[in-house]
């Protein structure tokens, strides 16, 4: 079926599907080729229509086919862009407000801008909760079962102040026993890792 | 949950409450003051959370209840901070605070996820809603939706449709709109006698009554209306 | 994380990658009239036009448009793997069949094929729930017998006649992974 329309646009979709939820590099070339194909199809249809050909049913088929191909290309292109944005949105929830460098490398400037805008929209919403006292919805991702947790420090962090005012020195490879809720941000940013889950003080 | 949830309230009193045992919202703008105990509020929110998790579409928001609970939570956090580090109650109080915060956060997160996923569908519903009917979203959620769609559409236009042939450039919400699958099957427990309309085998509509206390596995669509009022619970 | 918390439901979506991929499945078509300027659809010949009565394969999205006109440009039949004889095989021994070979998106394509004008459409639609159900049961039976199995490679080695992992359609893989994760999370929670 060589020469069938929409093949290049489909490659965009296939590539995303292969990467299953991760962000591959942006395929600018393929995108541009798919857009070019749309332009060619459009112009061919315009020529056919202006030549008053549609009167004859034999010529209608090509018109319909090209139109279907135009819609197909549009759908593939939009699905490609949209799905990448979804992955980028999920990033905010999985990795916090700073994009990891290896993902950033695969993003276009416009996608980086999208992320920044999303960040702002989310921050505005979260800040409005509780009569503008705010609530960080990106924390408390799991129901609390444990009170304290043992963590190992993955990179030198320095002094970390706990909510009760005491501070602990997070030196690489040191192990500490800290309140679960206060470690979440550190775990998310890969500064520490959980060694072992402790049993809660009150078991059901 | 341990009884000190209520004890904390009576020890310290909370903003706007008329008596130590109840939690009231005496907001001047509210048409009526709904009072309920903290325990009742928590149960209501727990049910709302369960329903929101299980229902395919976005349910009516529990705006007042969330705001009340957040205020209660803030007071609990203040009180917990006042306790001595070695106080045995500290751990338990912190646990409850964390639990409530998880409940509220999860509830609001699920709503945001639905708002994002079904954004165009919700926008259409919001635009075509008659002004007397309540919105499915809080004012802040509506603002989130509006900004989210603007961000999304502007990107799709700049990177996509603007470079397409003239007649192909429209971004059509009806085409892009995803709506949730209202025909998914769910477990249901009936708390009040109710009746629903279902299509029977011949395609005719039939009224089926649901008895209080009964449980069913049923498609979401016929019972969707009953969920917000509490006549049925999703489990 | 935010959108992953949503219960995944099986509804079609304009943006869904799987829907787009599934609608690429090729459908055998026959032209009902001479189609001007469509010669390129048949790679085996060099004509500008496509003569009436030519057999061509079109992806579902193109077959749909070409067959659903008042005066249809093509007539179509269902792809080989959805034909009566293959359906009989699936009905007889659902758990043994390698759906990947018949795919790569057997179920998703089937849903799309059902929207095409064809006598077979209803029959295909009817056969699907039964096939899926029997294969999922076979999947669950094997899994519960092999709870200690950690990786899906192990499973395909140990399953013998039961549903092999590499024979599973992407939809079945997803059902499998969701169930496995849910089951493991429950175990973790009970144990801790």
From TrEMBL, chain A:
Q: Which Pfam families match?
A: PSF1_C, Sld5
Principal place of residence: nucleus
Q: Which InterPro entries match?
A: GINS_A (IPR021151), GINS_bundle-like_dom_sf (IPR036224), GINS_Psf1 (IPR005339), PSF1_C (IPR056783)
At the top level of its lineage, which domain of life is listed?
Answer: Eukaryota
Q: Which residues form the GINS subunit domain?
A: 47-129
Q: Which SUPFAM superfamilies match?
A: GINS helical bundle-like
Instruction: Provide the protein's localization.
Output: Nucleus
Q: DNA replication complex GINS protein PSF1 C-terminal domain location, by residue? A: 147-193
Keywords on this record?
Answer: DNA replication, Nucleus
State whether it acts alone or in a complex, and with which partners, per the record: Component of the GINS complex.
Output the PANTHER family linked to this UniProt entry.
DNA REPLICATION COMPLEX GINS PROTEIN PSF1 (PTHR12914:SF2), PARTNER OF SLD5 (PTHR12914)
Family affiliation: Belongs to the GINS1/PSF1 family.
Q: What does the protein in this record do? A: Required for correct functioning of the GINS complex, a complex that plays an essential role in the initiation of DNA replication, and progression of DNA replication forks. GINS complex seems to bind preferentially to single-stranded DNA.
Q: What is this protein called?
A: DNA replication complex GINS protein PSF1
Q: Which organism is it from?
A: Orchesella dallaii
List the lineage, top down: Eukaryota, Metazoa, Ecdysozoa, Arthropoda, Hexapoda
Automatic annotation (TrEMBL), chain B:
In this protein, which residues make up the domain named DNA replication complex GINS protein SLD5 C-terminal?
Answer: 181-235
The domain of life for this entry's organism is: Eukaryota
Q: Where is this region: Disordered?
A: 1-37
Q: Which PANTHER family match?
A: DNA REPLICATION COMPLEX GINS PROTEIN SLD5 (PTHR21206:SF0), SLD5 PROTEIN (PTHR21206)
Q: Which residues form the GINS subunit domain?
A: 85-160
Q: Which InterPro entries match?
A: GINS_A, GINS_bundle-like_dom_sf, GINS_Sld5, SLD5_C, Sld5_GINS_A
Q: What name does this protein carry?
A: DNA replication complex GINS protein SLD5
Species of origin: Orchesella dallaii
Cell compartment(s), UniProt: Nucleus
Question: What ranges does the record list as Basic and acidic residues composition bias?
Answer: 1-10
One Pfam short name? SLD5_C
TrEMBL record, chain C:
Name where it's found: Nucleus
Query: Which UniProt keywords are given for this protein, alphabetically ordered?
Result: DNA replication, Nucleus
Q: Where is the GINS subunit domain?
A: 82-190
Domain DNA replication complex GINS protein PSF3 N-terminal positions: 16-66
Which Pfam families does this UniProt record tie to the protein?
A: PSF3_N (PF22466), Sld5 (PF05916)
Q: Which InterPro entries does this chain map to? A: GINS_A, GINS_bundle-like_dom_sf, GINS_Psf3, GINS_Psf3_sf, PSF3_N
Q: Does the keyword Nucleus apply?
A: yes
**Principal localisation:** nucleus
- Stated role: The GINS complex plays an essential role in the initiation of DNA replication.
Q: How does it assemble?
A: Component of the GINS complex.
Question: What is the official name of this protein in its record?
Answer: DNA replication complex GINS protein PSF3
